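Query form — protein DUF1491 domain-containing protein

QUESTION: What is the three-dimensional structure of this chain?
INPUT:
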Amino acid sequence: MMMERLPTKLWVDALIRRVEVGGASAFVVQAGDEHRGDVLVKVARLDGTAAVYAPSMNMEGERVFLDLIVQGIGPEERDVDAYVKKARERDRDLWVVEIEDRQGRHFLTEDVEGPQSQ
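ANSWER: The structure tokens for DUF1491 domain-containing protein are given below.
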């Protein structure tokens, strides 16, 4: 069943709070549309590697995130940064949140599709 989405700013604030409670750091790289913008989540492992998670919909119409390493983006942080830069240029309503966590946790509560689902 498709649920109404939270306003994006509220969702981002909740994500950042989960990150902080979990002992990691997070910050907004780009703030997009406060109500309906999509969110890219970059996770920097602080060792030169990173992951990026992009929103999608599953077959039931529910919001999920895709681990883009499956699509060949990353794990080198410079490759992830290049992808994020292009995405930011394409979509000015896009939010980009960067999480810095040595354990590589994404803190997403939505389902994540890909090899690193945590």
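ADDITIONAL NOTE: DSSP finds two helices and six strands in the chain.
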